[in-house]
Amino acid sequence: MIQEERYDFVIVGGGPNGTALAAYLAKSGASVCVLEERPEAGGACENTEPIPGVRITPHAMYMYSGPSPGFEQLELHKYGFRMDWSPQSENLADQQARGVATTEGMSPITDKDAMGFAKLAGMLGNPPFIKDLLRATFWCPPHPPEVEVTAENIPYMQVYKQHQPDVWTEELLDMTMFDLMDEHLETEPFKVMHAMVAWYSGAAGHWEGVAIPAFACDITLTMYSGISVPRGGMHGYFHSIIRCALAHGAVVRTCCPVDEIIVENGRAAGVRLRETATRDEKRIWANKAVVSAVDVKQTFLKLVGPRHLGSSFRKKVDEISVKGGSIWVSHLLTREPLIPRPKFKAPGCENPGEYGGPYPCDSREIYFEHVADVDGRRGDPTVPPERLMWIATQSTRFRETDPQCTIPGVYLESPYYVLVPPPEYQPDGPDALDKKKEEINAYMRKAFSQVIENVDDDNLIMHLANTPYESEFRNTGLIGGTWCGTRHCDDQWAENRPLSELARYRTPVEGLYLCNQTACHPGGLCHMAIPYNLMHILIEDGLVEPGKWWYPSPWYIPQDGKISAIPR
Amino acid sequence: MPDPLIGKIFDEFPDESEWDVIVIGGGPNGLIAAAYLAKAGLNVALVERRYEIGGGLATEEVLFPGYYSNMHAVYHMMVDFMPVIQDFDMDRHALMWTKPNAQTGMVFEDGKSLLLARMVEDSKDSITKFSYKDAVTFGKLTRRWRRIVDEILGPATYIPPMSPLDITMAMQRTELGQEMLELVEQSPLEIITNNFEDDRVRALLLYTSCMWGLDPRETGIGMFVALLLQRGTNKCYCDGGSHKFAGALAREIVSNGGTIVDAAEVTNILMEGGRAAGVQIAEGRILRSKVVMSTLDPHTTFLDLVGAGNLPPDLKESVERWQYDKWSYYTLHVATKEPPRYRCDDNWINDAFMTIFGIESLDQLLAHWDNVVAGKIDLNNFGGHATCESYFDPHLVHSPYGGHVSFFQVHAPYDIEGGWDEKGKELEETILAKWQKAAPNMTRDNIIRTGHETPVGIELRFPNMRRGAIKHGDYKPIQLGCFRPNQDCSSTATPIEGLYVCGASTYPGGMVLGGPGYLGANKVAEDLGVAKWWQPTRAMAHYVKTYLE
After folding, report:
1. CB-based contacts of A133: which residues, under 8 Å, 6+ apart?
2. How far is B221 from chain A (nearest CA, A)?
3. How far apart are CA A120 and CA B489, in angstroms?
4. pTM score > 0.90 for this model?
């Protein structure tokens, strides 16, 4: 017997954003249904075990969401959330002892570097304001359209002004992260290392106007969560979110791809599932809203469909830039632990098999050369392997109680990342790099062997990789095969992300909201920020009334004529 | 830890916590036990070693990237009887099973084929090609056996075990019961050869009844022939992959207030004053409870987690006697552009849920199994079964290169002559050649990717499938019924107060029956004096009324 189904909210896409929103809404007492296309919810917060005893993380690896109000508001600790803290302390003093990897070996981090960095990061305030700084950058919805955005009301500017007035200057708003670092830090390799981490995290170190967002991405990872991972990987973190949603009554279904967001009389009324979906009834109706947690282009061009959109809007959506770097993720299985060449052995590091971080960080020339290669859409990586920038993680650090590799006598280096141009911009077609997978893997190993002495054929058992094109298919929300989808550049940040008319998560279709990293401030990295920010908007529109556990961003400005999300 | 300047970042799951019930192991039985008890209002924590719950209900991206495969339980045989499906609203989780009519095909080198279908007359049509007499016998026996399964064996799976004497007494009550007792006395090989004349029909029926680990020559297990042949023609596929069933159960646990803690290997069961008082997990956290339910194998539960020193001598002795499955499985997973198309006299074979090839005669099948038990696979003489999963399930393929996922599975010893590192690759090549012979489109050109899982691999992925034992222990008379895992523990309670066992090594056994978890939940609810919110299924009530009251 087929029964009609109705919920207050229908959410398309069961990744971290869609599911965290479901948790927020369900906890607020709303009825919610999340529809996920793949066999497992979690989106890019995923694990997979392609070889028995070898668990890899093809996308999300580290904890960027440490400052999120979601931990308190959703009480994730009740749903099994645990961290696997890196046994190696990630405090600045420890980083200073290790230094930064350059072609010459480890370059020391000076006191000026460390103090400047700590000052910018809000660690020298009294009390330290790093959490405020990060929340101001990511965990606040963009300001409403009637409010003029100025240096006085940009949340992170307010934080600096209050806590570290000597950092505050109006020029911060035009700076690149390099400009910022040139002013406060000393050594080039230290700056290049952070610029590169920022580039991987969505806002590059050389982009104008996003100095603080870029810097904040970097410190969220390197300082705030201490380059640590949740137990069970980021999928373990996701589990606590989905279980919170379920515990409050949300329905989360897998193998239920959505083919259409049903628009009736200009209003999103529900969704239509694909014919093959594991569900007899192919239509699910939304009383209050449909929320798309898949990328912005598919949301409008495929799910809503052009006939419900104005032609200039349709064109704008089509032209949203995804031109940033795309990520090639590798996993290396070896017979012996990987050993850094002598000049890269960190003084404080007892286990010779440990090497993690970016390389080579000699100078910004190397960085620019690589950026020009990738963002210049040149197709293949063209820089010689010895100048190719990469980031390797230290999966071995977590092997004590939450091991990723349990095969005796086998070692895992995973993930190992390189940025490449996205499939859409490969001159020889989207599968161009896939066709040369072995060749590019070999090129990457050559680059890696600048630092590691035994990445050779004798030691290597297997080089597993997912190309950006494959990533895009595996996770249809990862357009361009990247984590952030669309660049976190000034033209696509805060009130401009991804377009000014979509910045507050509302859309031209009444009852349709956006909740995806490509479409919404502040972008990627599993922050629980988009769902938190979107909650302000759903409250404004009178669709949800959370309980006493809710608190809005202190920097939030309510929109004229709407219900304020600040509890009375 | 992050820089001390930053201070505390967020709360984590507590270092010590209190629960009513802790379930060790998130496989089908652990999930079922936890789901019933959570809904009964108990404060339940399910603790799982892996990063994902499900145990053998695993749908994983083995052919990375983009192709999902079902690692173990592909063929769900007890969907028609499992109480859990009636008791929970599985529709809410969009859980569906499909039951193809074309169930098990067998293709031979000469292009002939046999097909067992869900509909008896369809099977008879196929058997008629070889022997009209066998077809008639098959029809008569199947109808009779179906009644035995529907009335006795199916519902009895979810009723606590009885002693052989009590069973005999109960079965005497009806003609059908007496017929079942007669079956028990015979070996599978006797049942098949006494009733069927054609060699190939015999080979197919013996394969189908013994493929999950029965010894064809062993007496005392004959009722399994009726059960497995009947259920073998009623296998279901869980749409979206086996893991979807696990996901639905996990959702029931959590939405009823239960807690799941994964990536948490239990290192020991806490013992206080001779009783079980909780568990400790790898990172040191302690979870205390009134009741601990273990779904792991007896060696892990008793010797490793409780500790041999804490066991009564009789229990220790019977645990040490426990024997793992006599064979495991080697599985070759393949991603192909097209599904395999078998060359044979019946196109319907290409719709079959399972296709056996490589077996040409009864003697050859027996020789292959004898080899396996002796630690060998003769590359010139082996066969197995294949399934193209994506033929039934579009959700498994997420690759720009499209196509299908299939697997071929062959019985295999855990310890193999020459070691699995070498043998694994060699076997892969031989299987691909054999497969192409049976299905000519399985050419190198059609194959996108391959990956194999050896018995050692099974154990690496699921450490309590020791020695690759998918049922956690052999099916033989002294490890079945009220002897599984031993007389003291088969009703799920153990001689250790507060400790219960309800995994595949406990009555009624493995293969996603969902029996041990269900029986464990019943027992714990009774012992804790908690009202049961569920009722026996109609078939169970009928069985109890007819045979036990």
Report:
1. A121, A122, A156, A159, A160, A163, A216, A219
2. 33
3. 63
4. yes
Q: Are B84 and B514 spatial neighbours (Cβ–Cβ below 8 Å)?
A: yes
Number of separate domains in chain B: 1
CB contact under 8 A, B96 and A246: no
Give the long-range contacts of residues A145-150, CB within 8 A, separation 24 or more: A145/A495, A145/A500, A145/A503, A145/A504, A145/A559, A146/A559, A146/A560, A147/A557, A149/A494, A149/A495
Residue of A19, A83, A254, A273 for testing the chain B interface, max B β-carbons within 10 Å: A254
Q: Tokens for B411, please give them.
A: 């019985």
* Contact A47/B at CB under 8 A: yes
- Tell me which residues of chain A, numbers 117 to 176, contact chain B at a CB-CB cutoff of 8 Å: 118, 123, 128, 130-131
User: CA-CA distance, A403 to A54, in Å (whole number)?
Assistant: 9
How far from B418 is each of A99, A273, B166, CA to CA, in Å?
A: 48, 51, 47
In a domain, B459, yes or no: no
Give me B220's structure tokens: 């005392």
Inter-chain residue contact A83 with B12, CB threshold 8 Å? yes
What stretches in chain A show pLDDT beneath 50?
352
ipTM: 0.96
What are the pLDDT digits (tens) for B408-439?
Answer: 999 999 999 899 999 999 999 999 999 999 99
Tens digits of residue pLDDT in A405-428: 999 999 998 888 999 999 988 989
Residue at token pair 């008890």:
B37
Yes or no: say if A66 and B10 are a contact pair by the CB < 8 Å rule.
Answer: yes
- Domains with residue ranges and CATH for chain A: 5-47+233-320+486-540 (3.50.50.60), 88-224 (no CATH), 326-476 (no CATH)
Q: Which residue of B has its CA nearest to A56?
A: B64
